[in-house]
């Protein structure tokens, strides 16, 4: 505790001494034309120290623990004591009575006093030496102030190059898991390993291509094969072989260093994720390598603190740093052909295989032999084809093993089993998948004559094979099988942005079959019309669907029966014209039509929900699944919804706060979201949780209620569609009362009363999608029909959004576009609108929006404008109204220099932002002042 008090006392002492010096220098600079240039240097350096220590004072007061780094800084000879000593020495060079007291002193008398006092007790050399010391101490302290929090740094000499302990209360592993990881490939690897048959795939290890690659003779090995050749299972086997090299090194007890450390990582592209795999590939292998050395590069830490998703170039730079921890890194990437827009992934592979920065990376790639892939891979890799007798021999081994180990084949006569092995080994023609499917067809047959007939008439292609599989399914089970395939497809589409989430379960498939399919065709009694269970579902789906046990991320909870299409070729076939126009047309899946139909059913059940889900687990019941999925689907199905007025109408029913079931729905969503298992993985699929918007007083107009909720949630396409059919005047005249949580306001909650327009005008800076909502409303109002059109200058005067430094809100400017302020200025808004008690520049300075400040000054905003004393003012009960009374009469430079008194309800700005805004204002000719009480007149209330 003594250390904390000593630290606090040191900080306050530095602030007070710095403030005295700044006042003296400032007064002297303003009063004497030919002031010594050293005073300007003293003013700038000491003002920066003061700002730094004010931020440090805030952190020290609100952090419960003082890090080891801060403790060393407060010791004798540390930067705190050194800085304080230098500041006090510098203060001695400025006589305490230099500033004349009283307001009646003439300017001439003030000048004489200053000249007399400064008969240069400010010794040049002494002052410059002290400034040099202060700059050194400031540089040391700034290392701790460059992030939002102070952390436990054990080795200051490395200046945060390695963050190996803790980061804001989370371990380095958790930081990577929740931020960097995107697509978890371990389930794919584990599933492929589970399907591996011992003794197969070893032919690769005997080839010259493999031996040369594993011994670093060349950097990339490309294994290619036809669809169904077993590339994924082979990749898993080879990955395990490579991993054994790593295990041997650890097992030998060899000390691991960057000079001898080897590592093996993998990534599996998947059609189920329906995504461009370039970014997820890098975002998976980088943290895997970091875990192996228990280390995070400072570059990765800085990217995390930046608060934005990393770019491809940033990821490649981070990978380069991580690779420096190893002698050799082997990377396996499977199924490149299953990546969407795979040219992006191919470009990454080219860089990894040819750029000298990644010279210690060995790349193993598997894919189909498509022309675009071949054109790229032939230039950077050594190819190895799977069309060879070794694969056919492996298929024989696999078929023999399955026939002998599967219970349904075990009771067959030995001669019949031999016939199956021989026929499938010959007919497979290098396709493992073909052999798997034939076994699934044969196991469904019960008569030896039919089995032998099937063996004599084996289908030649995978398409023909799938047609035969569907034909083998009992016609009474067709509807269930089709529903299962479509539910899997729908689920993967809706949750594609969060691939960590397990697939739809058997229980949900069966429950939705009753609720959606049977009920819609046979009435409410159909809920109990079938006796299917999870076992019969798995039997019917056969080799078309894989059911796995998946674990929730970061929990010990296993989820059984997580369903996915068994192979890429299944999706290709059921979505193809070949299926639509052939004998299996009943099972054809058109993703657009499927998504529309299933979402309609899910939406209907979500709206009709009259009680909370029975279980806290998202996938444990149809009620929770429909409610949560209806909300998550709003983003990926925005276009589908806007194209169908009936669907849009149903969405407005779902989001209507006057509906008596609305609170039940939101309470249920809130409960589901805050379960450890679901909330931790669904955040990526939710823009802004709409259940956080609590309605205290809802509007009578359903469209206004739904529009407000959509804007709050960031569903701009849907909001725009609703807005196009809404009377714009109601946005201003309708009164609502809501509250929502926010980390920016100290109370943790924002209470609002007013119109929907004012909600986003006042609070857009508190919401992740606030600027999007405000821009949408502005665009509609500015371009709206007369007489409801509002001038851009009026909107600019009332604009209240700002880019906050804490990462909770990022302005458009940071994404390469223009901010709302810039957009309004481009529309012709006057940067100095008349008739308002606060100018846009004053408000943006108070908000700390340096980009808006820059844009306003560039457009000609008055840097010394204090607002119109007779102008209209907001109601004092509103947030803007309360701030208007504070800001009016204070110049922008005065506001930024004394910003703490204008930001009492929110966190202080970082020193860097304060200094940037201050410099912008000074360059524009700003002066710090405030009007007297007599000069400030009350305006007309609006």
TrEMBL record:
Keywords: Repeat
Span of domain Nephrocystin 3-like N-terminal: 199-368
InterPro entries: Ankyrin_rpt-contain_sf (IPR036770), NPHP3-like_N (IPR056884), P-loop_NTPase (IPR027417)
This protein's record includes keyword Repeat: yes
Domain of life: Eukaryota
Pfam families in the record: NPHP3_N (PF24883)
Full protein name: Nephrocystin 3-like N-terminal domain-containing protein
Organism, as annotated: Podospora aff. communis PSN243
């Amino acid at each position: 505790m003594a250390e904390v008090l000593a630290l606090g006392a040191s900080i306050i002492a530095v602030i007070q001494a710095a403030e005295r010096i700044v006042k003296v220098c400032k007064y002297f600079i303003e009063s004497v034309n030919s002031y010594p240039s050293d005073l300007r240097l003293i003013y700038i350096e000491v003002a920066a120290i003061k700002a730094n220590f004010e931020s440090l004072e805030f952190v020290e007061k609100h952090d419960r623990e003082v890090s080891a780094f801060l403790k060393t800084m407060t010791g004798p000879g540390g930067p705190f004591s050194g800085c304080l000593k230098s500041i006090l020495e510098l203060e001695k060079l400025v006589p305490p009575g230099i500033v004349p007291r009283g307001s009646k002193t003439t300017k001439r008398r003030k000048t004489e006093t200053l000249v007399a006092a400064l008969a240069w007790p400010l010794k040049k050399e002494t002052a410059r030496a002290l400034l040099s010391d202060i700059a050194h101490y400031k540089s040391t302290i700034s290392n701790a102030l460059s992030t939002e929090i102070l952390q436990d740094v054990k080795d200051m000499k490395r200046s945060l190059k390695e963050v190996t302990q803790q980061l804001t209360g989370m371990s380095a592993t958790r930081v990577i898991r929740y931020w960097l990881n995107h697509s978890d490939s371990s389930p794919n690897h584990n599933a492929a390993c589970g399907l591996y048959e011992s003794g197969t795939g070893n032919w690769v290890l005997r080839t010259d291509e493999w031996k040369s690659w594993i011994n670093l003779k060349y950097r990339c090995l490309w294994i290619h094969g036809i669809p169904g050749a077993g590339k994924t299972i082979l990749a898993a086997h080879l990955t395990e072989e490579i991993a054994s090299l790593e295990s041997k090194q650890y097992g030998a007890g060899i000390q691991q260093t960057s000079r001898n450390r080897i590592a093996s990582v993998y990534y599996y592209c998947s059609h189920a994720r329906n995504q461009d795999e370039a970014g997820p590939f890098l975002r998976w292998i980088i943290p895997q390598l970091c875990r192996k050395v228990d280390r995070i590069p400072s570059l990765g830490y800085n990217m995390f603190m930046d608060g934005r998703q990393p770019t491809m170039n940033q990821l490649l730079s981070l990978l380069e740093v991580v690779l420096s921890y190893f002698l050799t890194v082997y990377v396996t990437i499977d199924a490149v052909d299953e990546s969407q827009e795979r040219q992006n992934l191919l470009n990454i592979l080219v860089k990894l295989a040819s750029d000298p920065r990644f010279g210690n990376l060995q790349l193993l790639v598997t894919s189909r032999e498509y022309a675009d892939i071949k054109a790229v891979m032939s230039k950077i890799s050594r190819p190895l084809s799977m069309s060879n007798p070794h694969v056919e021999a492996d298929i024989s081994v696999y078929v023999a093993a399955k026939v002998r180990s599967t219970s349904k084949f075990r009771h067959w006569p030995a001669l019949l089993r031999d016939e199956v092995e021989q026929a499938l080994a010959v007919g497979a023609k290098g396709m493992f998948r073909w052999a798997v499917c034939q076994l699934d067809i044969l196991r469904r047959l019960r008569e030896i004559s039919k089995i032998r007939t099937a063996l004599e008439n084996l289908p030649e292609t995978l398409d023909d094979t799938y047609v035969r599989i569907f034909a083998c399914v009992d016609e009474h089970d067709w509807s269930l099988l089709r529903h299962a395939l479509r539910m899997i497809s729908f689920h993967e589409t809706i949750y594609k942005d969060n691939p960590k989430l397990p697939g739809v379960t058997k229980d949900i498939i069966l429950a939705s079959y009753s609720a959606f399919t049977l009920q819609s065709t046979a009435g409410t009694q159909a809920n109990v019309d079938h006796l299917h269970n999870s076992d019969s579902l798995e039997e019917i789906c056969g080799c078309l669907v894989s059911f796995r046990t998946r674990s929730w991320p970061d929990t010990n909870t296993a989820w059984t029966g997580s369903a996915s299409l068994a192979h890429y070729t299944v999706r290709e076939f059921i979505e193809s014209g070949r299926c639509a126009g052939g004998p299996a047309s009943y099972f054809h899946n058109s993703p657009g039509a499927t998504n529309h139909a299933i979402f309609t059913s899910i939406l209907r059940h979500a709206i009709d929900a009259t009680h909370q889900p029975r279980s806290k687990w998202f996938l444990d019941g149809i009620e929770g699944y429909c409610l949560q999925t209806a909300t998550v689907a709003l983003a990926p199905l925005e276009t589908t919804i806007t194209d169908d007025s009936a669907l849009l109408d149903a969405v407005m029913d779902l989001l209507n706060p006057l509906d008596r079931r609305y609170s039940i729905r939101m309470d249920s969503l809130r409960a589901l979201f805050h379960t450890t298992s679901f909330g931790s993985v669904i955040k990526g699929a939710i823009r802004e949780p709409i259940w956080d918007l609590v309605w205290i007083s809802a509007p009578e107009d359903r469209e206004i209620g739904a529009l407000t909720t959509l804007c709050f949630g960031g569903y701009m396409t849907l909001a725009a569609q609703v807005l196009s059919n809404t009377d714009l005047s109601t946005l201003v005249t309708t009164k609502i009362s809501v509250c929502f949580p926010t980390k920016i306001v100290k109370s943790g909650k924002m209470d609002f009363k007013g119109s929907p327009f004012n909600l986003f005008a006042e609070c857009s800076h508190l919401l992740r999608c606030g600027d999007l909502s405000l821009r949408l409303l502005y665009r509609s109002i500015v371009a709206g029909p007369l007489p409801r059109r509002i001038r851009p200058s009026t909107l600019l005067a009332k604009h209240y959004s700002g880019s906050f430094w804490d990462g909770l809100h990022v302005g458009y400017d940071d994404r390469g576009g223009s901010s709302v302020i810039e957009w309004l200025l481009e529309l012709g808004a006057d940067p100095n609108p008349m008739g308002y008690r606060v100018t846009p520049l004053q408000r943006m300075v108070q908000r700390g929006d340096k980009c808006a400040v820059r844009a306003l000054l560039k457009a000609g905003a008055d840097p010394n404008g204090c607002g119109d004393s007779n102008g209209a003012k907001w109601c004092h009960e509103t947030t803007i109204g309360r701030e208007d009374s504070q800001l009016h009469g204070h110049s922008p430079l005065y506001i930024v220099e004394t910003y703490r008194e204008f930001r009492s309800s929110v966190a202080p700005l970082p020193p860097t932002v304060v200094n940037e805004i201050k410099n912008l204002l000074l360059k524009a000719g700003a002066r710090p002042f405030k009007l007297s009480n007599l000069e400030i007149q009350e305006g007309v209330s609006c």
